[in-house]
């Protein structure tokens, strides 16, 4: 039996309507990393592999790490979203960059000050006076370490050599006395390599606890694409929550998605477990992705009081900014 052209058209339209969202074009979203893929990024790759972004109608491209910071890419509207370090967010935003944090990757500080465990001459921060620090070249480090030492009764006087990631080998070899590390990555690696360390937690000596890093975007993007931003952030939140609940599967996803990075599966799994056990990805209160206003105010005030915040001309700001404008929780799934 032959069908009339009108009947064929009707059937075609019915099929398209039945397909519905499956035939809808996904919205492209770009996400810039702050470093080579690691466990801080695991929720992004989980959300991609498990189809959470697809379900949200998004086609997410995770951009490879480059020498241009994610904050710069986002502020210049080259990338839609990016991983922002806490200090970078505060300094760049104060200087006029179009940046706003929309998701806290970790709920508490992952950094710590470390030294070799056999250093009997170092028992507390004041013993770091006159010692040599292997650093990374930022004003934040000087303010951080000086505050820690002075709050323990020391002068805050120490020598600095800028070594970047070579700092960890220099510490192990005894070429320097102490450095800073991210516990959930470098710290876990040191433990696995049998390099015994002792550590000082920043918040124990007067430095405010903070969300070490964020997912951020621009005010311009939020104004133009609020629904897309909400879809991306809630799907990402789902990815991180899934990683915490299914660490073995999440580890495999991160490693398999980045086979060119030659990630050590056992090391990645240990790092993820440290993030879970320390309530970094999911706070003790169950929070995933939420930004704590009290922490933002405390860190912002610390940076202001130590003279780290500069305006667009490089001059130290003389009036404390309104830090509530630097972040928003409005795009999270509040359930």
TrEMBL record:
Domain of life: Bacteria
Keywords, alphabetical: Iron, Metal-binding, Pyridoxal phosphate, Signal, Thiamine biosynthesis, Transferase
Leader sequence segment: 1-24
Catalysis: reaction(s): N(6)-(pyridoxal phosphate)-L-lysyl-[4-amino-5-hydroxymethyl-2-methylpyrimidine phosphate synthase] + L-histidyl-[4-amino-5-hydroxymethyl-2-methylpyrimidine phosphate synthase] + 2 Fe(3+) + 4 H2O = L-lysyl-[4-amino-5-hydroxymethyl-2-methylpyrimidine phosphate synthase] + (2S)-2-amino-5-hydroxy-4-oxopentanoyl-[4-amino-5-hydroxymethyl-2-methylpyrimidine phosphate synthase] + 4-amino-2-methyl-5-(phosphooxymethyl)pyrimidine + 3-oxopropanoate + 2 Fe(2+) + 2 H(+)
GO molecular function per UniProt: transferase activity
Pfam families found in the cross-reference section: NMT1
Residue ranges occupied by any SsuA/THI5-like domain in the UniProt entry: 38-250
The protein's annotated pathway: Cofactor biosynthesis; thiamine diphosphate biosynthesis
PANTHER family, per the entry: 4-AMINO-5-HYDROXYMETHYL-2-METHYLPYRIMIDINE PHOSPHATE SYNTHASE THI11-RELATED
Subunit structure: Homodimer.
Role, per record: Responsible for the formation of the pyrimidine heterocycle in the thiamine biosynthesis pathway. Catalyzes the formation of hydroxymethylpyrimidine phosphate (HMP-P) from histidine and pyridoxal phosphate (PLP). The protein uses PLP and the active site histidine to form HMP-P, generating an inactive enzyme. The enzyme can only undergo a single turnover, which suggests it is a suicide enzyme.
Family affiliation: Belongs to the NMT1/THI5 family.
Name assigned to this protein: Thiamine pyrimidine synthase
